[in-house]
């Protein structure tokens, strides 16, 4: 399954920090019911066998809904569980090397903060770009701020889809209108909400309105 602009509209990135009474699986199920169009499984400190089991569970949930499923950073595990693809940052494996490993048919997403990083990622095989942080965020300690002007310039400089990430909420997403992005990636705006399904529906509606402007 390849990515396109439509299925990058509302991109959910998991974060175990927000699991409480619910399991991550239950949270992802609720987000899928609410209408997320793309799921990235992100685990930084999980033992391999447990991560593999979780990845297979989330992969199957996404496939049942026809939603692309990628892993963050772990190329070997993405191949092992037959994920739809992989997302890497600037400090992870270089995009061209990832593309060589995963082949032409899996999705390759790359994080970028500058026009130069974005153009290089496209040249080296990225299918889409995640650009941010476009608002202050507590989800990533190392997130670099990206101005909305830089976001617009990145969208103009590449032909592949661009999504914004970082501190995006239902309340501020309209500020990104006119930037050229095709969607947004969020963590707490979905998984940090008390009612994930309804929060996802509201956010998806707001994002749809934003990209149409």
TrEMBL record:
GO terms for molecular function: magnesium ion binding; thiamine-phosphate diphosphorylase activity. InterPro entries: Aldolase_TIM, ThiamineP_synth_sf, ThiamineP_synth_TenI, TMP_synthase. Keywords: Magnesium, Metal-binding, Thiamine biosynthesis, Transferase. Its cofactor is Mg(2+). GO terms for cellular component: cytoplasm. Pathway: Cofactor biosynthesis; thiamine diphosphate biosynthesis; thiamine phosphate from 4-amino-2-methyl-5-diphosphomethylpyrimidine and 4-methyl-5-(2-phosphoethyl)-thiazole: step 1/1. 2-[(2R,5Z)-2-carboxy-4-methylthiazol-5(2H)-ylidene]ethyl phosphate binds at residues 137-139, 167, 187-188. GO terms for biological process: thiamine biosynthetic process; thiamine diphosphate biosynthetic process. Mg(2+) binds at residues 73, 92. Belongs to the thiamine-phosphate synthase family. HAMAP family: TMP_synthase (MF_00097). This is Thiamine-phosphate synthase. It comes from Hornefia porci. The lineage of its organism: Bacteria, Bacillati, Bacillota, Clostridia, Peptostreptococcales. The gene is thiE.
């Amino acid at each position: 399954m390849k990515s396109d602009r439509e299925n990058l509209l509302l991109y959910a990135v998991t974060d175990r920090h927000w699991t409480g009474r619910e399991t991550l699986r239950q949270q992802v199920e609720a987000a899928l019911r609410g209408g997320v169009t793309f799921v990235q499984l992100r685990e930084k400190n999980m033992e391999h066998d447990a991560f593999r089991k979780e990845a297979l569970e989330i992969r199957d949930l996404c496939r049942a809904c026809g939603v692309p499923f990628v892993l963050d950073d772990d190329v070997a595990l993405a191949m092992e569980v037959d994920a739809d693809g992989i997302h890497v940052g600037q400090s992870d494996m270089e995009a061209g090397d990832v593309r060589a490993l995963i082949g032409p048919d899996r999705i390759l997403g790359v994080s970028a903060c500058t026009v130069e990083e974005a153009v290089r990622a496209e040249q080296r095989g990225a299918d889409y770009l995640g650009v941010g942080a476009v608002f202050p965020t507590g989800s990533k300690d190392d997130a670099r701020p990206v101005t909305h002007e830089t976001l617009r310039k990145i969208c103009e400089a590449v032909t592949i889809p661009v999504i914004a990430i970082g501190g995006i909420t239902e309340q501020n997403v309209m500020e990104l209108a006119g930037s050229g992005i095709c969607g947004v990636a969020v963590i707490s705006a979905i998984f940090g909400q008390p009612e994930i399904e309804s929060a996802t529906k509201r956010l998806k509606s707001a994002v749809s309105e934003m990209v149409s402007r």
